[in-house]
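FW: tagging you since you asked about this chain on Friday. Here's the raw sequence from the shared folder, copied in full. Didn't touch anything.
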Amino acid sequence: MRALIAMMKHETNTFSPIVTDLARFEAWGLHFGEAARRAYAGTAMPMGAYMELAEAAGADIVTPVAAEAMPSGPVAVDAYERLAEAICDAVRDGCDVALLDLHGAMVAEHTMDGEGTLLERMRAIDPDLPIAVTLDLHCNLTEKMVTNCTALIGYKTYPHTDMYAVGKQIGQVVFDSIAGRVTPTMAWGNVPLLSQTLCQGTDDEPMKGLIAACRDCEAQAGVLAATVFGGFALADMPESGNSAIVVSDGDADLARDCRDRLLAQAWAQRAAFVYQHRPLGDTVAGRQGDHRRAGRAAQSRRQLRLRRYTGCNGGNRRGDRAGARRRRRRRGLGSGRGAGNAGRRHRRGRDPQFGRQDRHAVH
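HL: got it, structure written out here
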């Protein structure tokens, strides 16, 4: 058995003026061939889980590419084609299974559905190829993604701490299908809801309850995987928004029933996905007041954590950073430059479990 394992990820903000060329992938993480295998073997990323499953199955592993760029504007045509063709060439060379780590919100200059286009090309080369796909919780799910793979799953955490777990889960489903033990059957759908990313933290409602509902579905006999996606509204494409997908073992009715319950719950909580803005000055003042009321004003430094808009530190949008820094300085909070070390560890695939946030002293 020959297993193709690859990663091709970008969360695209179609409103951003920042060009996503190959150099931007190189700056964050771009590896071809054996270098991709060395970079992600033994990591807590989906590729790490895929490799372990393939090795346990006695498969020969080929890793044509592992590419990820920080959020920014649409992916340049030449960059997209360089990455996609590396994967498609490996399919043309022959493989028995493909295990892919994708994002789900990639928009390129020549295709609005970067992941769906890649999967469609792979299936055109080998229509019967078993394909497992992991996607980010901020995926904008499309028909083309679903119809061109065998089984698909998304993260259940934001910040993302379960990437290895979901990779192992869906990879095992596809290996079991190859062995004839299960028959993956998918049902998916979406609702007309562009939810704010800051309302998608999985420790808080409404996503907390939706994730619990997914786990309830997965606890049912015959359900292999269940996912709710918060979507990524800054990728301005027709399918942007909240969606759900359920993978059952040959039971289409069961998959549809679980999907419908997940989508109904998301729609019922649509008001909770609208972010209620609070000015930075009010947030800081409120935090300072909390310390004073708690009798801690005389103590030294306290911490205020300011989460960046959409949680992405890497230039995925144009924001009022200079203005925010001025307001921080006026209140003695410093410049607000932080969280870089965690990002660098994540880029190496060694420490995916971090939240993108700045920490500031509050007196």
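FW: Confidence is low (pLDDT under 50) at residues 297-301, 313-320, 337-363.
HL: agreed, and The CA atoms of residues 123 and 148 lie 6 Å apart.
FW: great, closing this out.
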